[in-house]
Design a protein that fits this description.
single chain; FAD/NAD(P)-binding domain; 9-stranded mixed β-sheet
Length: 569
C-alpha cells in the first residue's frame, strides 16, 4: 500500500550540489521544498579525524552499494552488457551531498567555445571538420549568458584562484587568492613558460584562506592534508554542499529533508507531473509525495534512468538518431606522462585542487586546421598529496613484489611527478544510455545500460596531449619519462574519472534536446532536470562549476515558473 504524503510546492530528487543549490535559492524566496535523498544524512561530524585511506579510498565508504544497484556496460551493441560489480572507471557517490562531498575541488569554468561548439567549429573550419557520426550541437545558451551564474557559484564556495588569458573571461575577481605554489608546481610552470605556454594556478574549492560566503556560511583554510578525493573534509576547508547550500536551505525553515527516500518513479500523465513515488530503504514502506514542481537532481546516471523508467521524453535511438533521453553520453579523455627524477619533492603535502596548469591546448585555443580532432584539454601538474596504501610509483620493468619492488618504491615515492590531461569528450552516435533489458536492482527496476567506447577523435586527442606532456616532462628534468599515447578501447576498469555527462541534454529545440536552457523538460513543463546530464558534450575541464552555474540558472527559471507557470523562454 502506498501512503500519500501532504503536498509540497517543490520536491527535489537527490540533494547534492544541484539539489542543494536549488533548495537554498527556492527556500530563501519563501518556497516550500522537500528534498528526497536516498542515502543517509552526512554532517561535518562524520569526518572528524577520519583520515582513513583504507575505509574511504580503498573500500569506498562514501560510494554507492553496487550489490543493490549498479549499471551495465558494453563497448558496442554487438557485445553482451554486464553489470559493473566493483567500483572502477568512476565512483558513484551516495548519501547527503553526493559526489559533492568526495570531490577533489577543482573549479575551472567551461570555455565560451564549449557553449557554442558546433557553430564556432563550423565558422572557423567548415562543416567537414565534424565527422558524420559526431552528434555535436550547441547548448542553446552562450557563455555571456552563463557568466553571472558562474560568478554566483564562485561566491558561494569561495573559489581560490588566479585569472589567465587562456581561460574564460570573468566579471569578478576570485573570492580568495590562489593556493600555495610548491616546488613541483613551480618547476612545471617555469618549464611551461619556457615552451611559450601560459601557466597559472588552478581554481580550487580547497580554500587558500577562511571565507564567509554571502549566505553566511564559513569555509575554513586548507591544511594541505592530502585527504580530498574520496573523503569528506574534517577541516571544513573543502567547499561542499553540507557546509554551504544545504545549511542555508535548512536555516530558512522552508526546507524538509527526507533521507533514505529512494525515488523509483516520477508520476506523469503525458503532459505534467504531480509528484514522485519513493520507498523508505529502512522499512520498505512506499510513499507518494505530491508536488506542484519536481526537480530531478540525482546525478547523470539516475537522472537518465528515472526519466526512462517513468516514460518521460522519447528514448534515444542510435539507428534513426531520433529521441533524446540517453543521447550524447560523454566521459573524459584522460592522458598522462609520468616522470622519474633524481631530485626529491615534498609530495606528502597536497590538496585535491592544488595544481599548476596550462590551457593552451584546450578548447579552440590552438589551431586545429591540420589536426584530426577538435577541442583539447587542460594539462595539469596536480599535487593531491601521496597516501601510503595506493601510492606505489616504480619505473616500468620493476618487479611488483619483493625486495626490488620495495627498494624502488622507497626510491621513487618522493621522486615521481605526473602530468595529466583531462581531454574533452565529443558526443558520438553510438555512445548512449538506455535501460538494460535483463538486469534489475534490488527493487526489481531495470538497471541503466551504458554503451560507450572511445572514438578516433578521442584517440587522436589523447595522443596529441600525451606528446605535449612528454615534451614538458622531459624538459622538467626527469631521468625517465613514461607516456603511452594509445588509450585503446574504453574499459569499465580501472579508475579514470567520475566526470560522466549527458543523457538529458540541453539545447534550443525539443527535436535535439531534452531540456531548454533553464533545464525545464520540453515534454513536461513542471519538471526540471539539473546536473551534468544536461551537457551536450564534455569539456576539457572538471564539470562541477558548470553544474553549479547551471543550477543557479535553473533556480532562477524555477522561481519564474513558480510565479507564472508555462514554458520558459
Amino acid at each position: 500500500m502506498v501512503t500519500e504524503l501532504p503536498r509540497k510546492e517543490v520536491a527535489i530528487i537527490g540533494v547534492g550540489w544541484s539539489g542543494g543549490i536549488i533548495a537554498s535559492e527556492l527556500t530563501k524566496a519563501g518556497i516550500e521544498v522537500v528534498g528526497l535523498e536516498r542515502g543517509g544524512e552526512r554532517t561535518v561530524d562524520d569526518f572528524i579525524m577520519q583520515k582513513d585511506e583504507l575505509r574511504y579510498a580503498v573500500r569506498y565508504d562514501l560510494m554507492q552499494d553496487l550489490s543493490k544497484e549498479t549499471i551495465t556496460f558494453r563497448n558496442d551493441r554487438d557485445m553482451r552488457s554486464l553489470p559493473m560489480r566493483q567500483m572502477g572507471s568512476f565512483l558513484l557517490g551516495t548519501d547527503l551531498g553526493g559526489a559533492g562531498v568526495h570531490w577533489n575541488g577543482q573549479c575551472p569554468r567551461f570555455l565560451p567555445y564549449d557553449f557554442e561548439i558546433r557553430s564556432q567549429t563550423v565558422d572557423r573550419y567548415g562543416e567537414e571538420k565534424i565527422p558524420d557520426d559526431m552528434t555535436l550541437q550547441d547548448w542553446g545558451i552562450s557563455y555571456d549568458e552563463m557568466e553571472e551564474h558562474f560568478a554566483r557559484f564562485d561566491e558561494t564556495i569561495g573559489t581560490s584562484g588566479e585569472d589567465n588569458e587562456m581561460t574564460a573571461p570573468r566579471s569578478t575577481e576570485f573570492p580568495t587568492p590562489p593556493m600555495k605554489e610548491t616546488p613541483a608546481i613551480r618547476l612545471f610552470k617555469e618549464t611551461a613558460s619556457d615552451f611559450g605556454l601560459h601557466p597559472y594556478h588552478g581554481a580550487s574549492a580547497n580554500l587558500s584562506e577562511a571565507y564567509t560566503n554571502p549566505d553566511g556560511q564559513t569555509i575554513q583554510q586548507c591544511q594541505y592534508c592530502s585527504f580530498c578525493e574520496r573523503f569528506g573534509c574534517d577541516y571544513q576547508a573543502k567547499s561542499d554542499p553540507i557546509i554551504t547550500v544545504i545549511p542555508t536551505a535548512k536555516e530558512t525553515g522552508n526546507f524538509e529533508l527526507r533521507t533514505h527516500a529512494n525515488v523509483r518513479r516520477i508520476s506523469y500523465d503525458g503532459e505534467r507531473t504531480d509528484g514522485v513515488y519513493f520507498v523508505d530503504t529502512r522499512t520498505g514502506e512506499e510513499f507518494f509525495q505530491p508536488a506542484d514542481i519536481v526537480i530531478l537532481t540525482a546525478y547523470v546516471m539516475n537522472n537518465t534512468r528515472l526519466l526512462l523508467h517513468s516514460e518521460i521524453g522519447t528514448p534515444y535511438d542510435p539507428d534513426t538518431q531520433t529521441g533524446v533521453i540517453g543521447k550524447n553520453y560523454c566521459y573524459q579523455i584522460m592522458a598522462n606522462a609520468q616522470g622519474f627524477f633524481d631530485r626529491q619533492f615534498n609530495l606528502y603535502a597536497g590538496a585535491g585542487a592544488l595544481a599548476g596548469q596550462v590551457d593552451d591546448y584546450n578548447g579552440d585555443n590552438f589551431d586545429h586546421s591540420d589536426l584530426d580532432f577538435i577541442h583539447g584539454g587542460t594539462i595539469q601538474l596536480t599535487q593531491t598529496g601521496i597516501r601510503p596504501i595506493n601510492t606505489n610509483p616504480v619505473p616500468p620493468g620493476t618487479k611488483q613484489w619483493g625486495s626490488e619492488f620495495k627498494q624502488a618504491k622507497a626510491q621513487y615515492f618522493y621522486r615521481t611527478l605526473s602530468l595529466g590531461s583531462q581531454g574533452a569528450s565529443m558526443p558520438y552516435r553510438y555512445n548512449f544510455l538506455d535501460l538494460d533489458p535483463t538486469y534489475t536492482d534490488n527493487f526489481g527496476d531495470p538497471l541503466l545500460r551504458m554503451t560507450y567506447n572511445f572514438t578516433e577523435q578521442d584517440r587522436n586527442l589523447a595522443a596529441h596531449q600525451t606528446q605535449r606532456m612528454a615534451e614538458i616532462m622531459e624538459e622538467m628534468g626527469a631521468n625517465e619519462v613514461v607516456a603511452n599515447p594509445d588509450i585503446g578501447d574504453y574499459n569499465i576498469m580501472p579508475y579514470q574519472t567520475t566526470h560522466n555527462t549527458g543523457g538529458v541534454i540541453m539545447g534550443g529545440d525539443s527535436e535535439t534536446s531534452a531540456v531548454n536552457n533553464y533545464l525545464q523538460m520540453w515534454d513536461c513543463e513542471n519538471l526540471f532536470v539539473v546536473g551534468a546530464s544536461a551537457f551536450a558534450h564534455n569539456s576539457g575541464y572538471n564539470p562541477t562549476p558548470t553544474v553549479g552555474a547551471l543550477s543557479y540558472r535553473a533556480a532562477e527559471g524555477i522561481k519564474d515558473y513558480y510565479e507564472n507557470p508555462g514554458p520558459l523562454a
